[in-house]
Amino acid sequence: MSDRLAVRKTYKLYVGGKFPRSESGRSYVVTDHKGRFAGNAALGSRKDARDAVLAARKAVAGWSGATAYNRGQVLYRVAEIAEGRRAQFVEDVVTAEGVSRSKAESTVDAAIDRWVWYAGWTDKIGQIVGGANPVAGPFFNLSTPEPTGVVGILAPQSSSLLGLVSVLAPAIATGNTVVLVASESRPLPAITLAEVLATSDVPGGVVNILTGRTAEIAPWLASHADVNALDLTGVAEELAVSLEVSAADTLKRVWRRTAAEPDWTEEPGIDRLTTYLETKTVWHPIGV
Amino acid sequence: MIDLTTLEGMDTAGKVRSLCAKARHPDPTDPTCPQVAAICVYPDMVPLVVAELKGTGIHTASVASGFPSGRTSLDIKLEDTRNAVAAGADEVDMVIDRGAFLSGDYLLVYEQIAAIKAAAGKAHLKVILETGELVTYDNVRRASWLAMLAGGDFIKTSTGKVAPAATLPVTMVMLEAVRDFRVATGRQVGVKPAGGIRTSKDAIRYLVTVNETAGPDWLDPDWFRFGASSLLNDLLLQRQRMATGHYSGPDYVTVD
């Protein structure tokens, strides 16, 4: 008996529910924490970003139009499927972050629990940030939160799974669609997550994941007129200002980066949910 | 080179008026943005379009002759055509009788086109072949030739109501036909692919095909038109992309 040939994996982008190679045909070598070869990932280009925004825009109507209850079910389904891939996630996190196996296991647990946590929020956030407003007139005055639209996310650079889920889940929980640029040096957990998303009832285009150089792709997302919000969590400090300026040119919501990457194991709160929401207020006459 | 078109049962005067406004100023924020070539509507909307486009040089095209199926008697087709011309249309888009064509009754198709050409008078006659229903390239070539012999000023691929609409290979066959027709008779006939051309990239492919197949003489709105409303929006997005350096989005053009 001869030895089996290794079945090597090609890591690709996740755009519009499909796994295309980069339009540019480029790829880059991803190493583990010790600098050993871990895989080749697609090196996404600005055209890939544009295609991803198109896919995300197409998905807005369906996803934001789904009931909050349904979105919650879908997010819970992500947790279910991720649970089935636990071993692979643990392996990915160990390779990417160089943590011990037990630490990686608790990180994966936390990441899956975070999906469940945000799944619960989908049909409750409306009660927290919306409501009936008292007005001096014969009107029902109701405020409801509406999704902002397409959110560009520059995922955290060091926390490759828990950080990733912590920025992604809140954006889609409220009905936005997302174009996410994965951690530049640790992109493989993001691709595994993409495979989970592809098989867990999340409609194609709701989440689009690009791998590549954050500094190359980010300016195109920041200036893109069809992106409605931008999460700067994973950008380098020197880039953040210029990105915020071009985001302002096209009136985007911006989530600013913090000096150090946050501790993702802490309870997240609802700030990330409310950042990508717009308030719609309706005045409804009630007669005399 | 673009014909802005609205051919829906639910067309309203308001919709047609806003389309005319778009034809005059495709990008209101950019006065250098060129106008479209023509507006194409159903006959009942022609007077409205004529009034809206007075003095702009934009042509008014009307479909006629029982569009889109062409399944009416010749009398009605002729009356339909005369009506459209009387209302002020300077371009008439007719459909050929595909049933007759496919059953081999080419003379009938020829005579109908010739009769409608006569009824259209001075108005430009565009002959819609509906290539999506002609099945083979041979048929497309034959129908093109028939339409040109019968006096058509333009041959047009499709109504936009049948899939597939315009495709690059079909357009190439038609371009070859008009090229050969000019060599044979000395008369130049225009080509209009319609339907299914949505992006600027597609449009460039078509223009390259025109240049390489028929020649640069056809690279002119009088001889080549796109029947594609969504293409205009994409062109506007690309113009904005060139002007601003960043990608634009559909929020920045009118959606019609």
UniProtKB/TrEMBL annotation, chain A:
Name the keywords, alphabetized.
Answer: Oxidoreductase
Concerning InterPro entries, the annotation shows:
Ald_DH/histidinol_DH, Ald_DH_N, Aldehyde_DH_dom
Superkingdom in the source lineage: Bacteria
UniProt-listed Gene3D superfamilies: Aldehyde Dehydrogenase, Chain A, domain 1 (3.40.605.10)
Aldehyde dehydrogenase domain residues are: 24-254
Name recorded for this polypeptide: Aldehyde dehydrogenase family protein
